[in-house]
Amino acid sequence: MIYLLAAAAFVSTFLGGLLAIYLRDSLHLILGFSAGAVIGVAFFDLIPEALTLTGLTAEQTFGIIAIGFGLYLVLDRMIVLHHHHEGEDEHAQHGERGAWGAATLSLHSFLDGVGIGLAFQASPAIGFIVAAAVLAHDFSDGINTVGMVSRRGEAPRKAFGWLIVDALTPLFGIIAASFVRVNEAQLGMLLALFSGFFLYIGASELLPESHHQHPMRWTTIATVLGMATMYLVIGAAGA
User: Fold this and answer.
1) Would the pTM of this model clear 0.70, i.e. be above it?
2) C-alpha angle with apex 208: 31 to 110, nearest 5 degrees?
3) What is residue 40's DSSP assignment?
4) What b/e readout covers 103-119, taking b as 16+ CB neighbours within 10 angstroms?
5) In which region does residue 87 sit, left (phi positive, over 0), alpha (psi from -120 to 50) or beta (all else)?
6) Is the Cα torsion angle 8, 131, 40, 232 positive or negative in sign?
7) Model confidence pLDDT, tens digit, residues 180-219
8) Is the pLDDT of residue 81 over 50?
């Protein structure tokens, strides 16, 4: 059963990514939606779970979130400075940043799979609840991954490659969970760290990029819709 859920996660992520690839002419709207979805996942899913699992105070948990945000900021800026120093052209710099963002989203998907595997170790009921929450935002994960790479002007083939990686990583996470034991506090801290990553990606990367070339009200509406969608699907999954 657990591997059927992994297959469902693959299909959901893959379909979301294909939608983003075939609607490249509306990329600004997809990026706007992706920004809202990424921020929504952080606010409505990752942060509440982290606050519940870490066993730390709210101040300490938000401190980890801030560390995640700052860590991603520093790494992102270091990549840009590194390529500028080596004389790389702007397209190459953007391609590396897009790949870095897609890799981070894929790592989050891997942790989703780890979460499913660990939840099933606790009990099948908890496992299904966690799996429902993962499936609820996997479709958006596919859109976000393609949007992260495509916004850098990369070819659809490269975006498709990252989509396959992102769609497969939950399965690898489930397999890894069978060999690793992570307690709730450690899982909560990882979620808090990734909350900071996602807040940076959404607010500092996707959101400005979506609005830069197309300062349209529909782009803003797409962002709000992305947040609202994640609120509804995460709420429905947890109901």
Assistant:
1) no
2) 50
3) H
4) ebbbebbbbbbbbbbbb
5) left
6) positive
7) 777 788 878 888 888 898 898 788 877 776 766 566 788 8
8) no
